[in-house]
C-alpha cells in the first residue's frame, strides 16, 4: 500500500531532484506510532527533531513545527485504520553543487502516513530471534544520538540476513561494544538491574528508550547506562529491543545464544504498559 | 543557473518522495569534469561507481552504466560552454518503510549538468587558505573509500567557516589524524617525498588522488601513504588539495600556519599536467 503524503502541506508525491536530502542525506526524520487514532508522543518527537536540526545547523523557519502539526492533522483525515505509522522528514531543501548549505535554504517538510506493519503476535509473546551484524557502527561519530538521514550503515547491516525468522540485527562498534539494533534500541536485565548502552559516541537515542528509562526510574528499577561488550548482553538473564512503533519485543535468542527468561518480570511489567495497543 | 537534468534518461526535475536516497542516503555519486567539451576520466568514475554499488549491495541492472553513458551523451547536446561539471547519482530507488532494500529495487540513475564553478585564478597561482575543521570523521567506518550519499559530516565541517577567503577545510579523525578536506583529498611534500593519508578506515578515495599517485609513480616521485597526525602535514615543505573538478590547488596556509614553498617543484610539475584546461 502506498503511503499518503504531504510535502510542505500539499498532497504531492515528488520532490525536486536538487534536494539536499537526496544528494547528501542532509536532514532528519521521525517515526511515530498512531494507536487508537491518536498520535503517540508527538511533542517528544518534535523536541528531538528540533534538537537534531540545531545540531545540523538547519534553521527551522518560524512556526515550522506548528505547520508539521497541521500537516499531521490534515493527513489524519485520511486515516482509515486505528493504527498507522507517521514518518516525518525534514530536509534542508534544494541547493546547488557543494556542501555549503544555501544562505536562504527552503527547509522542506514531508509527512507520510504508512499502514501499520503487522508484526506477528509471537514477537511479543515468544520473543524474537536476533542476528549479530558484522557491519559495525563508526565511532565516535559527531552525529551520535540524532535521527538523521545518513543511514547506510544500518542498510548494510539489514542486508546481512534474509531469513524471515530473524526480526532484528544487533550492531556494535569496531571494539565489539553493543550500541543498538538496526531499527531499535536494546536493553537487558541481569540480577534485576536494567542495562542499556550509552549512546554518546554513536547510535540513535530512541524516544521509546527514553520512555523506558523514565518508567524504570518511576518504578524504582535500578538502571546502568554504559559501555558494554556484546558478551555482557549475552550473559544477561533477559533482553529486549524497543522502538516507537514496535514497543517492546523480548529477545528469545541472539545468534546461537538463547535466553531462559523471556517472560522476565521487568520485561513483562514494562511490556504491559507499552505494548497493549500495539499488539496485533 | 539551474542544472540540466536526466532522470532515467528523461528530462525531469522531480523524483519520488519514496526514493531511498532521500530517506537514507542509499546511493552513490560521482562528480566529473568536462573540459574542452570532453568528459574527463569517465571510465575511472564508472569503475568507482560500480565498486561502490557492490559495497552497498546495489545490484546494477544489465547495461546500467551503458545507459548512464547514453544519458551523458544526450545531456552533452545541451552543453553551451567548453567547461562544465557532471554529477551522477545512483539511488537504490523507491522502497517502503524500513532499511531492508526492496527485493526488486528499481535502481535510479540521475545525471545532472552544472555550470563550471569559476574558482579564482589565485587559488591556482598563489594557493588557498585552509580552515582546520573541528568536525571529525567517524573512524573506522565500514563506508570508507566509497563516494556514497551519506555526507552529513562534510556538511557540518563545511558550515564551520563563512569567510569567503577560506577555500577548504581539513578533516581529521577523532585521534587527530588527517584524512581529507571537505571536498578534496590532501597531499603534502617533505624532503621531496609525497605524502597522503591512508583511506582504509575513512574518507573518500578520489579519482584525482589516484591519478596523482599514478603520475608520481611514473615520474619516480617517492610516495608514502599512511596514518599521519595533522602536525605532520603542518611541518611539511608544501601541501595541496585535489579533486576531479578543481584539479590541484596549492595550500598557502592552514589555520595560522603558512607554507613557504607554494611553488614547490613537485606541485608545479603535477599542476602543469593537471590544471591546464581547468584554469579560469
Q: Your description of this structure?
A:
The structure is a homodimer of 280-residue chains. The first copy, chain A, is an alpha+beta fold and 280 residues long. The first copy, chain A, has two domains: 4-115, 2-Layer Sandwich (D-amino Acid Aminotransferase, Chain A, domain 1), CATH 3.30.470; 121-278, D-amino Acid Aminotransferase, subunit A, domain 2 (D-amino Acid Aminotransferase, Chain A, domain 2). The first copy, chain A, contains eight helices and 15 strands. In chain A, the strands form two sheets. In chain A, strands 7, 8, 9, 10, 11, 12, 13, 14 and 15 form a nine-stranded mixed β-sheet that branches. Chain A has a five-stranded antiparallel β-sheet with strand order 1-6-5-3-4. Chain A is globular and about 55 Å long. The model of chain A has no long low-confidence stretch (mean pLDDT 97). The interface between A and B is large, with 61 and 61 residues. Strand 2 (14-16) of chain A pairs antiparallel with strand 2 (14-16) of chain B, so a sheet runs across the interface.
